[in-house]
């Protein structure tokens, strides 16, 4: 949900609550004032009736007006005075309506009377209804006006923020250019832009330094490794070495090779993470897979592995050719290297997916850690444990969906593109 929409909703909810509470208070206040006026009017009429009886020494005739009625009833004993709400039939339209009723005692000679004054409330209720309706309409119009006005104002005020946000979205660390922000007049947005500029400049500087360090370190490590390997090869070729010395040299040579492969794999991961493979082209996956299978032909034949393949001729993918080569090479290489003798490999390529499955024992590595770095089922293996990490990194950077599962004694890796 956008910030502007969220704040507008909050304003709307607050306004509704505020006007609802105000409407209830306003209604209670108006109703209370009207009831108070009616009560005063009833007691005023009571005083007039008693004064009339006192002055004329007779009971006035029954009175019926548009909104009230006075009734005299002879009683044997004085009645208690009471004021109450009641529902009576209006004599004008024969409909039940709300009345406020005042009952009080009156005496004429030796006779007692009960005087009842009924005050109709239809005029007061109509007045309250009109007032409340006017208030409700005004409140709705005011809320709508405030909502629209607040959105317009907020949109205008937030323009520098959205400009900065779009500039951040366009920012690409590989372009080696600082983010370009439009000037802002609001103090907070100006501070935000200053901090964004400082942050992106620092990111670019750190990225350049890290990139240079990675490349330099890899180059500097690779050079002495190449020298060590060449010297070891010369020493291994000497004829006066004992069997023990030959074993030691062989171990050192294999360790040097392993360190060289590890260095190259880590450098490759770093380049992939830094998105240094930007050039893309349309790649025929069928040709690429067949080329990789031909490279592993000797291992396949030596271990008697049966390869079944169902490759679509029209399956293409747009990505960096070097990354595509590494991706396919690692997936097929894993399926062959981690297979069993007389096992099988099945490759299914469609227009939007690649599924590679191979026979094998249950992996000792939990599925959730399979694509993490340096995860190896056999710690003594000469593998660096980075093959599937590289596959995962390539898939993430190229927006490919990578999945793994073990089903019916088969390791299955699928890629959707």
Total individual domains:
3
Helix/strand/pairing category? alpha+beta
What is the mean pLDDT?
80
- Percent of residues in β-strands: 15-25%
Q: Strand order within the widest sheet?
A: 1-2-5-4-3
End-to-end Cα distance, whole Å, is 29 Å
Largest sheet: 5 strands, antiparallel
- What is the gyration radius calculated from CA atoms? 46 Å
Q: What would you call the shape?
A: elongated
The unreliable regions are none
How many beta strands in the DSSP annotation? 12
The topology string of helices and strands comes to: HEEEEEHHHHEHHEEHEEHEE
Helix fraction, binned, reads 40-55%
> How many separate helices?
9
Explain what the structure shows:
There is one protein chain. This protein folds into three domains: 3-154, no CATH class; 171-276, Helix Hairpins (Orthogonal Bundle); 281-416, Heat Shock Protein 90, CATH 3.30.565.10. Strands 1-2-5-4-3 form a five-stranded antiparallel beta sheet. Strands 7-9-10-12-11 form a five-stranded mixed beta sheet, with helices on one face. It has helices at 3-56, 122-157, 159-170, 187-236, 243-273, 285-295, 297-302, 321-337, 387-397; strands spanning 63-64, 68-75, 82-89, 96-108, 111-120, 281-284, 306-311, 316-319, 344-349, 353-359, 401-406, 410-416. The two termini are 29 Å apart. By secondary structure, it is of the alpha+beta class. Helix 6 (285-295) packs across helix 8 (321-337) and helix 8 (321-337) packs antiparallel against helix 9 (387-397). It contains nine helices and twelve strands. The mean pLDDT is 80.
